C-alpha cells in the first residue's frame, strides 16, 4: 500500500516537472519526504527527482538521510558520491566512497567509483590497487579487466597489462568485449610508436605522484587575452545546459576570467564576417550545427585568444591548475581523451599568435562542404579532432627533437610538449574536464545529439 502511494505521488511530481512547474514539483517532493522519510524506495526516488530539477545539494541531503537510515546499504554511499562529484566536491566524494567500502568491502560498484575518483586526482596507482582487489573478489567481471588494463597502460606498466589481458583471454574465451580490449591495447601500442610525444603526454597527464588539494594561486594577466566562448544554435539552450554554463561562469570568475560568451548561428556568422572572413564559406556551407561549432571555434581561436568549452563539459580537480598554468606561461592548452592518446577539440585554450592554431587555420581556410560527404568522417577530418591530431603529429613528428615533461610542479597533471621553436600544454579528460556530467542531459537523448543525426560513412563509399 505504501509503495503504491509513493509511486502515485512520483507520477504527479514527474508530470509537474514535464510541465515546467518546478515550484510545485519541489513542494510535492517535500510532502513525499515528510510522509515517507524512513522509506528507502522513497528516498532513492526523491534523489532522482531532485537531480531532474538540478537540485543536487538537496539530492545530497537525501543521500545522507539514506546513509544514516541504512548504513550497510551501498546505494546510499553511491548516490551521495555521485552528487558530490556533480557539484565538484571531489575530495568529499572519495571520502564518502571509502567510508562505503568500510561498510561494504566487497561492493563492486563502490570499487568502480573509488577507481574513478582516484583517477580524477591522477592517482592511477591507487586506482590499479582498487581494481586488483575487485578482480580478486569478482574475477568474472569483464569490465574490471578493461579498466585495469587501461590504467596499467596509462602508468606504462606494460608487462602487467599483458598479464591481465592473458588472464582475461583465459577467463572469457571467445568474448567479444575481450577481443575489443585486445584491439584497444594493440591500438595504444601503435599510437605509442606512431606519435610518441602524444602518447607520453597522455600517460603523464593521467597520473600524479601524489594528491594535491591546494588551490592554485591567482595570477595577473589581461582578461582581453583569452575570452571563454561557447556555441549553441538549436534555439534557446535547455535548463540543464544553462545550469552547467552558470557553474562554469562561477569557476572562471574564481580564476579572474570573464564569463562565457555564448554565440548562436547569427552572432557567430557576424563575428566571422567581421573578424575572420576566410572561414565564412565553411560556416555557411556547414551541414550540421556540430560542424558550424567546429568552424566557428577555429575561426575565433586562430585570430583571437580564447577558452573554448563545449556546452556539456564538467570541471575536474585539475581544471584550475591547468588553466592557470596555460595563462601563466601564455601557452596554448590542448585536451586529450582519458581512454586513449587522442586530442579532442571539446576544450582548449588558444593563445594569440599560436603556431598550432596558425597551422590548423591554414589547412582549413576555405573548405567548402557543398560537395563533401555529409557524414562523421567529414566532421572529424575537416575541422574536427582528426585534424587537430594530424597537425599535432606534423609539428612533433621528430621524437628526437621533442621534449615531454611535467609543466610546473612535480605533481602537476599538465604536460609540456616542446621543440626548439614550439611548445604546447596538454591536459587529460580524466583529471581536468569530464566530457559529460553525472546526470543525463536531455538533448543527448534526442536527435539533437550530433552522433545520432550524422551518419557514419558507408563501407562501400568511394
Task: Describe the protein.
α3 (about 40-50) packs antiparallel against α4. The relative contact order is 0.09. It contains 21 helices and ten strands. The strands form two sheets. It has an eight-stranded mixed sheet, with helices on both faces. A two-stranded antiparallel sheet has the order 4-10. The longest helix has 19 residues, at about 175-195. With about 450 residues, it is of the alpha/beta class. α13 links the parallel β1 (about 225-230) and β2 (about 260-265). The N and C termini lie far apart (about 65 Å). It has helices at about 1-20, 20-35, 40-50, 55-70, 75-85, 90-105, 110-120, 125-135, 140-155, 160-170, 175-195, 195-205, 240-255, 265-275, 280-285, 290-300, 320-330, 355-365, 375-380, 385-395, 450-455, and strands spanning about 225-230, 260-265, 305-310, 315, 335, 345-350, 405, 415-420, 425-430, 435. Among the domains are: about 140-195, no CATH class; about 205-455, Spore Coat Polysaccharide Biosynthesis Protein SpsA, Chain A. The model has no long low-confidence stretch (mean pLDDT about 85).
Largest sheet: 8 strands, mixed
What CATH calls the topology of the domain at 204-453 is Spore Coat Polysaccharide Biosynthesis Protein SpsA, Chain A
Q: Quote the beta fraction.
A: 5-15%
Helix content: 55-70%
Q: In what order do the strands lie side by side in the largest sheet? A: 2-1-3-6-5-9-8-7
Uncertain spans: none
The residue-averaged pLDDT reads 86
Count all strands and give the number.
Answer: 10
Give the end-to-end Cα distance, rounded to a whole number of Å. Answer: 63 Å
Helix tally equals: 21
**Secondary structure category:** alpha/beta
CATH domain class name of the domain at 204-453? Alpha Beta
Shape: globular
